Amino acid sequence: MNNIFFELTTVLILAGLISFIVSLLKQPSIVAYILTGLIVGPLGYYRMQQGDVFSGLAQIGITLLLFMVGLQLDVSQLKRIGKTALLVGLGQVFFTSLIGYGILRALGFSAVSSLYIAPALTFSSTIIVVKLLGEKKDLQSLYGKLVVGIFLTQDFIAILILISLSGLTPGNGSIYANLPLWENIIMALVRALVLILVVWWLSAKIFPKIIEYIGNNDELMLVVSLAWALGLAAFVASPVMGFSLEIGGFLAGLALAKSGVHYEISGKIKPIRDFFIIIFFIVLGSGLALNNLSAMARPAIILSLFVLIGNPIIVMILLGLFGYKPRTGFLAGVTVGQISEFSLILVSAAYVAGNLSQSEVSLVTLIGMITIAISSYLIMSAGRIYDRLHPLLKIFDFRKGAAEKHLHNVVLKNHIVLVGAHRLGHHLTETLQKHEAPFVVVDFNPEIAEFYSEKGILALCGDITDSFIQEQVNLPYAKMVISTVPDFVDNMALLHAIRRTALGRRKPKLIFVAQDETETKAFYEEGVDYVISPHFMGGMHLAKILEGKQAAFDLKKLREQHLKIMAHN
Q1: DSSP structure class, residue 504
Q2: Dihedral sign (CA 20, 25, 28, 34)
Q3: To bridge 362 with a disulfide, which of 51, 146, 289, 378 should be the other Cys (CB 3.0-4.6 Å)?
Q4: What does the pLDDT look like over 379-392, one tens digit per residue?
Q5: Domain limits at 106?
Q6: What is the pLDDT at residue 1?
Q7: Phi, psi (degrees; rounded to nearest 5) at 401
């Protein structure tokens, strides 16, 4: 029974078992998926009969991965990440590429191969590092924010390299495949300009209207998002355009990056992307060439040591020159000690274009497995390692920590999460602003989220029961959660999420809205600190009005106040 269902089930069961074992070793899942590919590929314990189908699924995975990158990559963020993160990111990529190129040439690699492999050694895994820093609860720290900025810069550079690679070396099916180099450069620039203009026009004129129409329909939004991502990718990869699927996926995401629902789309696409990206890494592992493993051992070890040690040192030097303390530089530097999924995508694209051999792709994949496995331990233990090495690391304190002396870092901790900001929530935002209380708004309506964003309030559009949104608002470290959402099921799901993410810490103060006495009692039984029942509160308010000696005057005054507030809203 060699149909796709049987084979896919077998491979996924194997991947699940290996992932479980790898998780016990505190390793990222990507290592398990590549190991699965090794088992079903070069090691030959199980031979895939549906290789073409798996390759197609892997392409979907890469397209959705780049779609998510584009979706979360607001170009305007470059202005907000700070000069330091931008320059350190550029410097790290430049110096790592330069030194890596020299090492590769010394190891006997050709100039062309070195030009492709060296940049692949510079990109760090955003997915893995952000996950690990999230587990350490360090994303909101000073070094965590620097790392996010550095990785954002890396992502931009990686995208530019992929665009250049796919444009200047189009596939055999492209009508530009046989053009001279200078003509190819001109045509690639023209096609890229046309694509950017079309995507910009769609994102400015068409998508806002579509999103406004489908914003409250979860299923329709998911289908439209997938259709747009895969559809544009297919068009961009057509013989007429001659770019790669990855570039199409990225541009599709970039077109929606400024939409009010990009967080919500990310949350819905993420599990689908994760499934297909599993297939990509399995296919990548299955294609490893292990017949010359002995020949790869020496360069793999040398280049892995360069990534694990050289990359962090480069970042530490650069941050030290900008005036950051050795501890900040070390903690940030450790995070770049591995190569990323972008590195594997880059060498895979170079292989398809005929610029790298299968053995060279296998070498980079092997470096990826080594560096990801080791750096995961280093990142989680970075604080303890620094405590032992800090006497030696003082040499990187070039400016006596000048950049941190007067730095007051704004951290999303001990904040208030306001879920639902339309009617009741609107009055709460005004009060919170007056008292300068740190808070973040989460609302399912994109128009409401956009309204608050325009007022300078941190606001996200999405479902608070979505784990992705919970990560964005740093739910475990909130001091209070106020939910004005009327849906009882959603509020109960939020309660369970708060318990799940508490991780032994004191849970935040909880204020929820209930529609009747039954819901009110249920919330109190679940540990909600205070429940707002509109009927109960309204009754109490009316009773106080009737107790007044000048009821008629009070009613007129209250009526005028009510109308004034409504007009203001």
Answers
A1: T
A2: negative
A3: 289
A4: 888 888 888 888 88
A5: 69-394
A6: 46
A7: 65, 30
